[in-house]
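I have been asked to look over a protein record a colleague put together. The record follows directly below this note.
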Amino acid sequence: MALMFTRWTVYWVCRSVPESSRMNRATAKHLIERYFRQLTEGCGNGDCTNEICASCPNFRSLDNNTAAAKALDLFKVNAKLCNPNPSKKEQYSDLVNKMTDVGNAKENFSDVNHLTETTVCTILSFCEEEGDYSTLIHVLGRIFSNAEALIKSFRSDEPNISKALDSVEATDNDNPEKKTPTSEEPGASSSAAAFPDEDVSDPPLEVLVDISALRRVYDKLLSLDRVDAALVNALIYLTPNLELDLEYLDVYGTNPEYLNIFVVVLENTNLHSPEYLEVALPQFCKAMCKLPVAALARLVKLWASYGLTHIRRMMETFQQLITFTVVSNDYDGENLVNDDESVVAGTQCLKLAYYASILAGDVDVEHNEEDIEDPESDELTLHELLGEERLYKKGPRVDPLQKELGVRSVDCIKPLIPHEEFVNESLNDVVEMDKDFTFFKVNAETKFSFQSCPFILNVITKNQGLYYDNRIRMYSERRLTALYSMVQGQQPNPYLKLKVRRDHIIDDALVRLEMISMENPSDLKKQLFVEFEGEQGVDEGGVSKEFFQLVLEEIFNPDIGMFSYDDDTKLFWFNSSSLENEAQYTLVGLVLGLAIYNNCILDVHFPMVVYRKLMGKKGIYLDLSDSHPALFQSLKELQEYGGDVEKDMMLTFQISHMDLFGSPILYDLKEDGEEIPVTQENRQEFVEMYSDYILNKSVERQFRAFKKGFQIVTNESPLKYLFRPEEVELLICGSRKLDFEALEKTTEYDGGYSKESQIIKDFWETIHSFGEEQKRLFLQFTTGTDRAPVGGLGKLKMIIAKNGSDTDRLPTSHTCFNALLLPEYCSKEKLKERLLKAITYAKGFGML
């Protein structure tokens, strides 16, 4: 059998090569067969001294399979060949003639207990000659339904005849004068480095699967009609056994090569097709989720090493499974998508592709900000006494896979596949976030929450989860306040009340918030209630919004000097030479945290590096591109300069920048930096140190206070776990994408107006005719910010109210209520002229 197997293999390899290469391959075929015959039958010489000949008295006999593998190894090293005894030649010739009669062969390959590329191709060739693929289908079904067989299949340490033959051709092409060994020249060399037929390098990981060979095999198999059905049935039979093995027998701990099963199966490029999606793939994903974290991490690293095409295929396969399952079922408050095992398993497997995309992209795991930790207290909190500690446990939760890999989503500078492609909108449409939040916070051990895989949720859905978290904390603080009041006999104060004077708003807010943060920080978790001294009115959200607007307008006033403003980028940055104390910066951080906590959009303009630093990362050179673009360009030119850096640039490790009064300040990036020139060799170090100084060291005092204020409000929030830095910016500042069609559909009317009123029709025609900048001015005029809330302008709920009949007065607005007061102008032209004047010159009047 082994001899026939070897001849079939060589036959398959040689049959499709060009005629020019046929002679070299034929010679190699002949040599491999001779080595095999020498190992199994010997040369027939009883006095043979060749230790790799079966006729040698010292030779240890080999079974046929071992001999076939050994023959390849001997061929590669050009081992000694004996001249066959004449009687042996005749015996061998008769044997070969019998065994190579393919037309009469009835071989079913029942002794094949695992697959290799050569095995599959041999069986394929046999089936092609027979005109019947039943043998192949039976072998595939038997191997793919058996875990032990798959573990041994397609191993990278398995001999591969096609590679050996390729090496002969490659060597002969490189060395045309090289002689091919014959029986007369047993010492001539015939080996060279083996190259795969496909340009896929094996990953530098301890997973012994020959991926190149496996992919070539799948390419051949999946073009045949009955193969998919056989593989589907085999997987359905295999996966229950995998689940049991992984859950109860610790098979991976005993044999780490158990992972080979998942590597082999997931190379099937048809897994996303309907025949797999119904049963086979969901069951296989459920089994894969049973793998220990260490095995899943190995799989992630393996996929990362394969590159974009492979990771995208994995991502699309699992996304297809999730979408297919979601659209095929009906979910409601009783039948939750969280209970659908197929969706849950697909989501958990999609997580592997997500982390592989991060690992294969640009990652920074080194530059981390130190967290500002609250001092631990040995005293039990009231939450713990009431048994609510699970709802309010401190510190961000840690994904075990993230910990095993040593990388977080915030470490990602640029993933291989954009984060947005991992969001599944079909799932977002059916997930019940109130129930999901409960699973996330309370029943995480027994119930699956999609918030444990936040990459699959869009910002709107995650914001709903954050909203529930914030509201539950607010209600809890009210309940605790009432309980304290009953015990202590005091008047309950269920809100975070701020009473401020308009002309002293910063001082009043600073004193009050600083006092609360020191005496009872938990009060900051209460719902904000603002009152302006001497003014009547109940804060239903509008007064708080106005408070935020006024505080930020004063804090970001360039005359105060807390922040510097870049006219080109229109962004603010911390002033490293500010004379303001840290409490002022803490107040800014508190305001940002309170805005998120109270679901309020702020008109804040920070570069993205601020949000990355808030989420725990230090600023790096790439962050300068939006915070300090001119400096970024200069440093980029320094890195790319092809001349003599030291002589032409004349830079040293001493830098200078301007202080608050425009005077230069010198700073040594290294000790005695003035004496250390920047050269070709150390320019990268200079760029990194310069960036670190500008983004981190020079503003360390200011940013630390700012971050402290932010964390006072958000330290127990899932914000850091659920959101990436760009999403945090979206929560605070809103989106720059403006859909005024959506705003028109959700706008409400008051004072006698309706959507059928002629003035309203003229109004919307005018708005839609505006350019992008004019639309932003209108939004700023009406709402206090030129950005849309999370979810788009359709979530804004703007009100247009009638403000009298035709007049020369300009439109006005109540920004705290998103209300536009619009007179009923006599013509569309007058409406446009009055509206443009109002939004263009809005500062100083009309903003109520």
